[in-house]
Amino acid sequence: MTKANNFQRIRELNYLQKAVLGGALLERMLPNYSLFSEATGFGDAAVFRSALNVCWEKILLPKSKISLEKQIEKIEPNVPELSDFDMFGTYPAIDTATALLGMLHGLMAKDDQEFLNISKISQASVARFIEYQLTVEGEVADNKSVREHPLMQYEMDVLAELIDFVEQMGRITSENVKELKQLAISDGQTNIGIAI
Gene3D superfamilies under this entry (predicted)? Predict the structure, then answer.
């Protein structure tokens, strides 16, 4: 499954399908923020969890009177500044925050491009992690070695599997959303391969 293929397939999904796919990818990214927060004492991972729960609720109950703006206001002070932390974990934490804010903006503006961006952010997060690992190990971190790395291959396979599931969902219900969320975290690791 090639990367372009996955992104092309996402573009062909409808608005709600893109939204639930974005949510599923965020389920895989969220623990990266929690681990960063635990390690540094910065930020409140519960705010992120709660905001993602609100996104799911909004997808399932579009008419509900949930304030997405309030969620954005809560998240923003919890986004780490790269310059404040001397550790790699800051990057995936920022990526998670960026993707989550994108999800909220997408739902507010009914802009499904934001949902597509989540898969790009997730993949970029994986690429950066691989580059970091290869560099630490003294390997060459070029495009080819990143693209062919098992973790990147795995990220693309998981994305393809989630797209397969979303394409088959039919009407989006709390039942099949629950199954999708389960599928997203069934391997017990985040998008960058950290055990959760």
Answer: YP_001051499.1 domain like (1.20.1590.10)
